[in-house]
Amino acid sequence: MSFVSPEFALFCLLFLPLYWALAQHARWQRGLLIVTGYGLYATWVPAFAGVLLAYSTVMWALGRCMSKTGRTRWPLYLGLWLAGSFLLSLKYYEFVRETFQTVLQNTGFYSLLPVLDVVVPVGVSFFTFQAVTYLVMVGRQPGFARSWPDVLLFLSFWPTLFAGPILRADHFFAQLDEREPARQVGLPRQAWLALYLITLGLVQKVVLASWLSAQWVDPVYKFPEQASSVVLAAAMLAYSLQIFLDFAGYTSIVTGLGLLLGFRLPVNFRQPYLARNLADFWTRWHVSLSSFIRDYIYIPMGGNRRGFARTQAHVLAGMLISGLWHGANWTFVLWGLLHGLGVVVLNLAQRLGFPAWPRWAAQALTFLFVSLAWVFFRADSVPQALRMLQGLWHSPVGFWPADVLPWPGLLAICVLVLGLSPWAATLERKAVASFGRLGLWVSGLLLSLALCAVLFYGPEGVPNFIYYRF
Amino acid sequence: MLPGVALLVTLCWLTSLERYLGVRYHVSLESALPEAVADAVFAPSRWLDDRVRAGGSRPLFRLAWPSATDEAEPATPVVKTPQPPQLEDLPQALPEGEFLPTLAQQKLLPGVQRILLAGDSMMQGVAPLLMSDLTRLHPDWEVHDMSRQSTGLTVRRYFDWPSRIADEMDAKSLTLVVVFLGPNDPWDMVVEGKRHVFPSPGWALHYAQRVDEVVAAAAERKVRVIWMGLPSMREGRVRDGAVLQNHIFHARAKNWGTDYLATEPLIGILSEPFKKYKQQEGGQPVNFRAEDGIHMTPSGLRVIKQALLAHIEKAAQP
């Protein structure tokens, strides 16, 4: 069930009052969260709920084993191996099998890897990483092992189950254990902020991202050979804006939902297109993933503690894993590699003492690099991405567009996103304060108008979130 | 406050919600409510539809054949008037391994072709690949992609394929229409207030009539039609639908002398158990199906595109 569907709106209307009514009965309230989490998960494929239940139970059992025996080494490694194998076999096996098959075909040999006919559970990349944070937490502090219902709740927490942000076990359970009444989970926290974030997310996703997708990105990526160089460049810009609005919109919605449930979710975006370099970009874009890779992959590999050359190798490996995490396709491998090489070049320039660029130039160059790299992220195949990039200087239909295109909309969204980025936090504060001042009825009316506008300007049907497929 | 916001937004957008429920769940809120209540509840959203939102009903292309209620439809001249679909028992399942074969009964007129690709998300996958090849092979041909996901022939008020295709034929002087749709259709049909349960002889009759609306409009304008059959499907309802739909597509194509392109031998045969993988010539299995058991992977789409391209090229030869 998508978070922007009428069914989900109905679910919220029925669920939230019941959830809040159980605020004084934490066990029942958490039980309700678990049941609804599994229910929502089952709306994709019912069997997935069983898979998630078994998976969570295994993770809980390993944590309990560490806690009971005090031995953490083998249960931790076994858990990491199980979680890794689960993700790799489901998500990447077919990619590996097909790659082997293609490579071997050219040499006259046949691949003996058998066909594995399985369906990948929704959100597997997200709950696998969350499970890793739980195992590592218990591995470090065996006394922190949680009960079975707590682990079920952590791995099925529905606001983040389908596309993140990736929760950290220690952060999540610290909220569950909070004893101070004002900070306890269970009742809405910063309700006006929550409603502001949900409405903002709907506008970003349903209206702006959908418009960019329908008017610019999809038509051009479908038929790149029919687009002039200028149109190809515009479509690349449009995709940069679309993926930001799509994922930031999703994150806003789930952050707002989390607040309505009384939970604070990790920050996932910090105005990424204001980044002054690629390293800075990765502290602002999909922060919960990049910080996971930093803490659980890059630093355990050695981070920057083993000399300059090894540090660059670790950066490349981390970025490659980040790319592959997004999908089993060579386009994602190249996307990750491009970002990794970009960071390595940046580190090299710093080491050689190149002077820093002026802020505006550094931001513009970073945005340009990120936008060009997005071509590999969006394209269905590497040849398609290369065709898109090649078309920038040599398109079969020329340089200038022949048709009338919706330029005003693209420019308006571009100005809106890039122009308002520096002021986003201020706008948020002012909007939330205004809601509080205007009172329940006027604010409710404003929210209704905003939602009507979302439906009016949105596309027909329920738009998909880009990150749902990861 | 939240219920108030929800109520206000719902009232303003009830007609949209009604369309959504129709497409997604094949139910109608309007039909379920007493007429007076429905009129009152739908009044605000209809007022907004008329004054704020663009749109309005489009004229539908109707055949001269009797409907299920035996009410006469307005007569429309067609060049060919083959045997109309009849109310009859549902077709028998084919023996395992058998499928309805491709029909290649028409040639394209010589000269430049103006082709429309119509259909649902399956056509959305095939269209870019086919367009790319056709524009490379025939730079003077025009190929238009009108594919749209979640559409079909069952729910007319959501997206009316017969009238849209007829409009496109006139607007673009088409010479060929390729139709590839179906998995959104195996649901009850409501025709003139009467519900026809899927699968039933009444459903099959009305579905065939909608296919005929497209083909008859094409015949009237001397536009060729290639109707693509559905490949094997994993899920029960969609699978049962594909079996019945292929019978209808095949029968109507045969009747009208148009083309039916079977995708079953390419991707998977409906009378056999569903398989995601198919052996390539070299003996290596290749995954042709997406995770949902309905759509195709890029490899599967390429196979269909290749067959469709070969079919069109053959039809274009004198």
Kindly report how far apart the N and C termini of chain A lie.
16 Å
Q: What summary fits the major beta sheet of chain B?
A: 5 strands, parallel
What percentage of the residues of chain A does DSSP assign to strands (E)? under 5%
Number of strands of chain B: 9
Q: What is the percent of helical residues of chain B? A: 40-55%
Mean pLDDT of chain A: 91
> Biggest sheet of chain A: strands, sense, closure?
none
Low-confidence segments of chain B, given as residue ranges, are 55-79
Number of domains of chain A: 2
Class by helix and strand content of chain A? mainly alpha
Keywords:
heterodimer, A: 18 helices, B: 318 residues, alpha/beta, 2 domains, five-stranded parallel β-sheet, two-stranded antiparallel sheet
What would you note in describing this structure?
The complex is a heterodimer of chains A (470) and B (318). Chain A is an all-alpha fold and 470 residues long. Chain A has 2 domains: 6-182, no CATH class; 191-276 and 357-457, no CATH class. Chain A contains 18 helices and no strands. Chain A has helices at 6-21, 26-42, 46-69, 73-105, 124-140, 148-156, 158-161, 169-176, 191-222, 229-261, 278-281, 287-301, 307-326, 330-351, 359-378, 382-391, 407-420, 424-457. Chain B is α/β, with parallel strands linked by helices. Chain B folds into 2 domains: 1-57, no CATH class; 60-316, SGNH hydrolase (Rossmann fold), CATH 3.40.50.1110. Chain B has 10 helices and 9 strands. Chain B has helices spanning 2-12, 14-25, 29-32, 35-51, 121-137, 161-172, 201-220, 236-256, 264-267, 298-316, and strands spanning 114-119, 142-145, 176-180, 189-191, 194-196, 224-228, 259-261, 277-279, 285-287. In chain B, the strands form 3 sheets. Chain B has a 5-stranded parallel beta sheet, with helices on both faces. The longest helix of chain B has 21 residues, at 236-256. At the A-B interface, helix 1, helix 4 and helix 18 of A face helix 1, helix 2, helix 5 and strand 9 of B.
